[in-house]
Structures are given as structure tokens and as C-alpha cells.
UniProtKB/TrEMBL annotation:
GO terms for molecular function: manganese ion binding; protein tyrosine phosphatase activity. It is an enzyme of class 3 (hydrolase). Coiled coil: none annotated. Pfam families: CpsB_CapC. Belongs to the metallo-dependent hydrolases superfamily. CpsB/CapC family. The keyword Nucleotidyltransferase does not apply. It comes from Dyadobacter chenhuakuii. This is protein-tyrosine-phosphatase.
């Protein structure tokens, strides 16, 4: 029944029209580790449109030690990208949220009721440290829920410190956190272990959303050439339900 996860047919490109909306990318120029220019951003939007997406909600980093992005900075950059896409004749809808690193500054913003940039449905895209686990991950996610947001955990397959006890993913999902896997993880871009964990999450029906997490055009070209296409077409990702929210 799960053969679609491991189909390795060659020379077939990924089509993403049925996914409809990408909720994780970095296409606002010059404000994080994504694109540097509006031209790059427009090229990525054009590639995403050609892949079948009808809507992008891009998600620049908010990580106070590195990227001190505010809603005002993000919104200004979004308008530049929208204008560039309009001039290029693109039809894809482009909106913005943010990818919040759970750090002291994030917790302060959450506690004080500051404006946060959300995905459709008042969803808050958050990420964890890659190397060292937070001591209070569950408590942080509960505090997000208590403030009226729906937490979406970005690329859970990349937090390798959870691999020794993957039941933590089910605990997070059961606690109300939606999980978003990267397409790039499923191409093997980040390595074999991350690919295997992404597949494990899929096999255990723990994934809600699929995201590109594209930072540059080469990421989208890799997705386009991916030969792991059946997981995209057959897994019940819920991206589409966010399109009209």
C-alpha cells in the first residue's frame, strides 16, 4: 500500500497544481538567507507558477540573532515582489507570513500580544534549533495555542535530535501542532537520514502540509526534476484547504 513512497521511476517531473499553495519559502529579497534581488524573487515566483502553484505565502525568517524582521519590513518587501510579478505578467497570488525561530524574542512578542505574521487560518509557522533541542518545546507550542494561534512546525524531519525517540512527533501532533515537511527533504537534498525521517512521518500519517522551503531557484529546479513523484500525488496533504482562507 505504501509503494508510492518509494517509486523511483525516471524522467517524470513533479506537478503541484493539486497542492495549490506553498506555505514556506524565502522569496522576499535581502531580508534573510533567501533571494537577494526582486528579479530573483520574480524568477522563483514564475517557476512556482509553472510547477502548478496558484498561491505563495512566503515566510522570511524572524530570528533575532540573525534576521530582525518585523511585519513592516516583510510587508514592504512583499509589495516589491508583487510589483515585480505584476510587471512580469504572472498570475500567481503572492502573500507573506513569517517563519519564527522559537527564541527569547519570539516568546516576548507572543506574551506581549505583538502583531505576528500568520499563514491562512491564523497559523503560525515556527522552527526549532537544528543542533540542540529546546528544553520546553511542548510548553512553547502550548503557549502559541493559548494565544489563539495554530502552530505549524516547519520541517520536523530536520531536527535530528528527535530521531532517538520519534514518538515525540506524534506527541506534538496529538497536542495540536501541525507538521510541515519540505519537498526538498523528500528529494534527498539534505541527506539520506532526513529523507528517511520525512518518509517515516508520511508513513505514520503525521504530516499536514507540504512546503518547498525554497531559498533559491536551484531548489525549485531540483523539485521539478525530482523522480520521487508519487508521494506528492497520493499523500493527503491539506495545503489546498488554505487557498481561499
Amino acid at each position: 500500500m505504501l509503494n508510492w513512497l518509494f517509486d523511483k521511476k525516471k524522467n517524470k517531473e513533479v506537478g503541484l497544481a493539486h497542492i495549490g499553495i506553498d506555505i514556506h519559502s524565502h522569496i522576499i529579497p535581502g531580508i534573510d538567507d533567501g533571494v537577494e534581488t526582486v528579479d530573483e524573487a520574480v524568477a522563483m515566483a514564475a517557476k512556482m507558477q509553472s510547477l502548478g502553484y496558484s498561491k505563495i505565502v512566503t515566510s522570511p525568517h524572524v530570528m533575532w540573532d540573525c534576521y530582525r524582521n518585523t511585519p513592516e519590513i516583510i510587508q514592504a518587501g512583499l509589495e516589491d515582489v508583487r510589483q515585480g510579478a505584476k510587471k512580469a505578467g504572472l498570475s500567481i497570488q503572492i502573500d507573506a507570513a513569517a517563519e519564527y525561530f522559537i527564541d527569547e524574542h519570539f516568546n516576548e512578542m507572543l506574551a506581549s500580544g505583538q502583531r505576528l505574521m500568520t499563514l491562512p487560518g491564523n497559523r503560525l509557522l515556527v522552527e526549532l534549533p537544528y543542533s540542540t533541542p529546546l528544553m520546553n518545546t511542548s510548553e512553547n507550542l502550548f503557549s502559541i495555542i493559548s494565544k489563539g494561534y495554530q502552530p505549524v512546525l516547519a520541517h520536523p524531519e530536520r531536527y535530528t535530535y528527535f530521531y532517538s525517540d520519534p514518538s515525540v512527533y506524534k506527541k506534538l501532533a496529538d497536542g495540536g501542532c501541525e507538521l510541515q515537511v519540505n519537498i526538498l527533504s523528500l528529494t534527498g537534498y539534505y541527506g539520506e537520514n532526513i529523507l528517511k525521517m520525512a518518509e517515516w512521518l508520511l508513513k505514520n500519517n503525521l504530516v499536514t502540509f507540504l512546503g518547498t522551503d525554497a531559498h533559491k531557484i536551484q531548489h525549485l529546479e531540483l523539485i521539478q526534476k525530482s523522480n520521487k513523484h508519487n508521494w506528492v500525488t497520493d499523500y493527503p496533504f491539506q495545503n489546498e484547504k488554505l487557498i481561499n482562507i
